[in-house]
Amino acid sequence: MRIFVAGATGAIGRRLVPLLVAHGHQVTALSRRASAVDGVTTVAGDVYDAERLREFVVAARPEVVMHQLTDLGSRDFAANSRLRREGTRNLVDAALAAGVRRIVAQSIAWAYEPGPTPATEATPLDLHATDPHRRTTVEAVATLETITAEAPEWVVLRYGMLYGPGTWYTKGGLMADLAAAGKLPAGPDVTSFLHVDDAAGAAVAALSWPSGPVNVVDDEPAPADAWAPAFAESAGAPTPSYAGPRTPWARGASNTHARTLGWTPTHPTWRAGFV
Predict the structure, then answer these.
(1) What integer pLDDT is reported at residue 228 of this predicted model?
(2) pTM over 0.85
(3) What's the confidence (pLDDT) of residue 35?
(4) Cα torsion for 242, 243, 244, 249, to the nearest 10°?
(5) 254-265 b/e with 16+ CB inside 10 Å = b?
(6) Stretch 41-47: mean pLDDT
(7) For position 196, which CATH number holds?
(8) How many domains does the chain have?
(9) How far apart are CA 110 and CA 105, in angstroms?
């Protein structure tokens, strides 16, 4: 299968591309540097250059476009929201112009409206959030998902909080630095985690999934007073202090639907994955 991967050098993309190649797929990788990805056809470009991006995608003649783009290197959430809106628009337009049937796009599993239990794919997104920063994030996620659904076939991967090599949640990563500085509070807020290798594996599996959103998270949504001390210990940081009450939307997500599609995380829980 011919696959165009946007975001091939990100935390997920670096693991996804070798998996696709190992499965026998022909991969074209979009990168800001032409030599950034070994073993595949690499094109250097910017997702905001709509005309050039369309040329790349049309020339690659892909059957599938994979959207694994993020812009969080400097924790710039506004830039990441712009990428979800404008970058997704340009990428999907390019895919449709090339006659692509299937688009697989990265989303998040913590954009759901408040509730007491882990969210399912049927739970509405939190489009009425009162916090303006959260509302901006959720609106950008909703825009990404709506644009992606313009493809004849589409899968939106609502990833849990990524941990593992190349992510914020790893020894030497951003959250480890915050933990070392005593700025990673424990408390009742619930998070669903996902090892970065499982994120890449789900993207490969999504090549044959039916259209729709899928929560791709591990088996154990957990409050921060459970996972934060474990993460801090794995990063060699002091035990976090407690903070509360629970943020209503911090509820975690259920992976039941993903499991019915045949996906199983190789890291079932952060408890083992952190170490």
Answers:
(1) 96
(2) yes
(3) 57
(4) -110
(5) bbebbeebebeb
(6) 93
(7) 3.40.50.720
(8) 1
(9) 16
